[in-house]
Amino acid sequence: VDAFQAWCGPCKTVVDLFRKIRSEVGSDRLHFAVAEVDSIDALEKYRGKCEPVFLFYAGGDLVAVVRGVNAPLLQKTILEQL
Fold first, then answer.
1. pTM of the entire predicted model
2. Sheet with strand 34-36: strands edge to edge
3. Which fold has domain 2-81?
4. Where does the record place the Thioredoxin domain (predicted)?
5. Which contacts (CB < 8 Å, 24+ apart) does range 78-82 have?
6. Where in the chain are the domains?
7. DSSP 75
8. Parallel, antiparallel, or unpaired: how do β-strands 2-4 and 34-36 relate?
9. What confidence category does residue 62 fall into, taking pLDDT thresholds of 50, 70 and 90?
10. Which residues have CB under 8 Å from 7's CB, separation 6+?
């Protein structure tokens, strides 16, 4: 889940990376979602940050968190969690 704030430009740039990785590993194994933290109460603790936050879930459980736009780390985390 890409937890972002509408004013955060770097948050928007990562979508292309997600699409690339999903096309490489297949959409049946990997699902991406975006959530604007200002409009979802459950994500309140991520509001007011000057960085995007990426939440990785497996089987409904939070398994990893990556803060900031670090494409190599995001890709590594995604592939490790598959």
1. 0.67
2. 34-36, 2-4, 53-58, 61-67
3. Glutaredoxin (3.40.30)
4. 1-73
5. 78/21, 78/25, 78/30, 79/21, 79/25, 81/56, 82/25, 82/29, 82/30
6. 2-81
7. H
8. parallel
9. very high
10. none
Beta bridge partners of 69: none
Q: Which residues pair with 4 in a beta bridge?
A: 36
Q: How many residues does this entry show for the chain?
A: 82
Task: State yes or no: pLDDT of 50 exceeds 70.
Answer: no
Question: Cα(35)–Cα(43) distance, rounded to whole angstroms?
Answer: 9
- C-alpha to C-alpha distance for 76 and 79, rounded to whole angstroms: 5
Cα–Cα distance, 54 to 1 (Å, whole number): 6
| Number of Cβ within a 10 Å radius of residue 4 | 25
With a pLDDT cut of 90, the percent of the chain lying above it is 10
CA–CA distance, 66 with 75 (Å, rounded to integer)? 10
32, 18 contact by CB (below 8 A): yes
